[in-house]
Specification:
With about 250 residues, the chain is an alpha+beta fold. It has helices spanning about 40-65, 95-115, 120-135, 140-150, 160-170, 175-185, 215-220; strands at about 5, 10-20, 30-40, 70-80, 80-90, 190-195, 210, 225, 235-240, 245-249.
Amino acid sequence: MAAEGCVEIPLGGAVRTVAPRNAADSNCAVEVYWQVGKTSNRRSALLSLLDHIMDEPLFDTLRTKRQLGYSVRGSSRNTLQMLGYVITVVSATHSPTEIEEAVLAFLETFTAGLTSMPAAEYKRNVEAAVANKLQDDHNMLEEADRYFSEVATFQYCFQRAEEEAEEMSAITRTEFASFVHDVFMGADARSLHVHVHKGADEALPQGAVRVSDVNSFKSGLPTHHPQHKPLPPLATTIPAARGSSRRRV
């Protein structure tokens, strides 16, 4: 069996247009995925902070004010240890081109605003994001899921949240603003745009290429394979539910 892997998206943008299963469906869906890079505590902390700071303005701008679609959401993503960020919009009133233009305009405004965010406001956001990261497990199932996720992915980082929270606390506003700019608009930005809609293909985002054959597109790209860490010592100490006594495994 071939090892699982995640292709590295080329520089610039690639667009895949897909017809809906129901030809009569007038809705359209647009998902834009920006590939950030291989997983690390620092990158994960930066993306968690982005999740926290961008969540409300993204929804307020595109859903509430622009009425762009009835579903607007953004979130970080970890695909086989390759990190990314995705924005998804489902609309019955706007075309993929209009959605793409609105998303880009929002990102330009949001990114520019980070450099002028008051230091006190940035500090409050970091503290709130750290608190969310260190939130106690609500029950034993959540605690078990955290541990089994580390085992299933061969990472065994049982204090991941604590380590990422420590990284997050050290991120300066300048570093964060630079990271966000590089992800979305930097010279090395990498994005994949998926449009699900009926009708003729529309104009592509500037600089993007159309993906007509997925297999051919993927075959020419380098593939990142997740790394497996060695088993930790049998007596490794891991935290129990956060805030309670520690357990040994």
